[in-house]
Design brief:
Blueprint (H helix, E strand, L loop, with lengths): L8 H11 L2 H13 L4 E5 L3 E4 L5 E4 L4 E6 L1 H9 L6 H11 L12 H8 L3 H12 L11 H6 L5 H7 L2 H6 L1 H8 L3 H12 L14 E5 L3 E6 L2 E6 L3 E5 L3 H7 L4 H38 L1 H4 L9 H8 L3 H9 L2 E4 L2 E4 L8 E3 L4 E3 H13 L9 H10 L6 H10 L5 H4 L3
Parallel strand pairs: 6-9
Antiparallel strand pairs: 1-8, 2-3, 4-5, 6-7, 9-10, 11-12
């Protein structure tokens, strides 16, 4: 027996939309609307919103190109948003190195546990957490496990669990599935849209991502104010068709109408909830980072504190900041820029990620240029100050500072 957490389809949809940026949200709504006659949506070429003073202000939509990233960096960035212990961080970083070019971890859990000298259950737990990261299913053992991690649809689970039969004998798979042919075909089409290899487009290859802000922060009459990107308008279509289908007396039409109506209702409610959560989130950033927007120093925010302020779970805050951007008077920033991605604690105080990077830069500025510090030596210096990091994290921070390795820094 084991404890499990059950999430309703409505809750899963709400979390899914919250996790999406405005570009992905538009694609998702368009995909659902194509198969649902009760949904209407419109995408405006320019963003319009109304201030609290009832005066209108218009922003032009632009695309912003961000720097290329690898899968490993993408996963490590998400790691620093989690409240992991040092032991959990060590296991997680070790697991990342075992991910192959398709996004799988093929090594046995017992072997990894033995290498790390930890309980296999700890490794298994961290793999389950890894699979929930973006891209979904990363760190799975095989295609089947990766696909199962990407959907909660029981029909798709049925097909995934008979993949081999589906490939060899679709007719028998249809019979065993217990579905009608039309339902089976619809589930099959949805299955084809899932990603069998989670590392596709990421692993050791560079990708360019174009972003559009989800939140805008600007100077208003009463200080800095936040607004949500509202260029998507989502609503119910004319429900005359729904009433006709319900009154038709045809069992299949009635079931279809109820299914699609519930889907439309859940989508619209989740869409509205996403907007409400983002506006709360943006208003907090606008208030807390006023000094930064005026040209001063950034005050890094904490995930747990924000979660308490807007009344959500910390994992919800992590979802909000995972892939979204905000346009401010200072420029375009990823939301996670405003957060402490990890807090290192020494004996007398908390030390932020940015402060750790400043220490690394200071060590390197003061080093003997004829014998520059290696990442291992920097790691030892940090440890002497009570900051226990792995060598690979030290190397990551050094690279983020734009500082080359010791061999390239040595005077010749």
């Amino acid at each position: 027996m084991k404890n499990t957490l059950f999430l309703s389809n409505k809750m899963l949809l709400s979390l899914k939309l919250l996790n999406m940026n405005i570009i992905d949200l538009e694609d998702e709504i368009e995909k659902i609307a194509q198969e649902n006659p009760f949904i209407e949506f419109e995408v405006f070429p320019n963003l319009n919103f109304v201030r609290k003073t009832d005066t209108e202000e218009e922003y032009d939509i632009e695309n912003y190109e961000i720097e290329n990233r690898s899968l490993k960096s993408h996963l490590i960035d998400q790691l620093y948003l989690m409240d992991f212990t040092k032991e959990e961080e060590r296991i997680f970083l070790y697991l990342i190195d075992f991910i192959d070019d398709r996004g799988f971890i093929k090594s046995e859990i017992t072997e990894i546990a033995k290498e790390l000298a930890v309980d296999p259950r700890q490794v298994e737990r961290m793999i389950e957490i890894l699979k929930s990261f973006d891209p979904p299913g990363i760190g799975s053992r095989d295609v089947k496990e990766a696909l199962l991690a990407q959907t909660d649809d029981p029909r798709l689970h049925t097909l995934i669990n008979m993949l081999e039969l589906l490939d060899k004998d679709p007719a028998t798979a249809l019979a065993k599935s217990g579905m009608e042919r039309e339902e089976f075909q619809e589930a099959l089409e949805r299955l084809k849209k899932l990603n069998p290899y989670p590392a596709n487009g990421f692993y050791d290859s560079l990708y360019t991502q174009y972003v559009e802000p989800d939140i805008f922060i600007s100077k208003g009459d009463n200080g800095f104010e936040a607004y949500v990107n509202e260029r998507i308008d989502l609503r119910f279509a004319d429900l005359e068709l729904y009433e006709k289908m319900i009154e038709s007396g045809d069992k299949k039409q009635i079931e279809f109408a109820k299914l699609k109506y519930d889907q439309a209702k859940n989508l619209i409610e989740s869409f509205v909830k996403r907007k409400e959560t983002l506006i709360k989130f943006g208003q907090i950033i606008a208030q807390k980072e006023e000094t930064f927007f005026k040209g001063g120093k950034l005050v890094p925010l904490k995930v747990g504190w924000i979660a308490n302020e807007i009344g959500v779970n910390p994992s919800t805050v992590t979802r909000i900041i995972s892939s979204k951007y905000v346009k401010t008077p200072n420029g375009i920033y990823p939301l996670k820029y405003f957060f402490e991605r990890f807090i290192y604690r020494n004996e007398d105080k908390e030390i932020s990620r940015e402060e750790v990077k400043e220490k690394i830069a200071k060590y390197i500025r003061e080093e003997d240029k004829n014998s520059p510090l290696s990442d291992f030596e920097i790691q030892k210096k940090l440890k002497d100050e009570g900051i226990d990091l792995s060598r690979r994290v030290v190397a990551k921070y050094r690279e983020e500072l734009g500082i080359p390795g010791s061999s390239r820094r040595r005077l010749k």
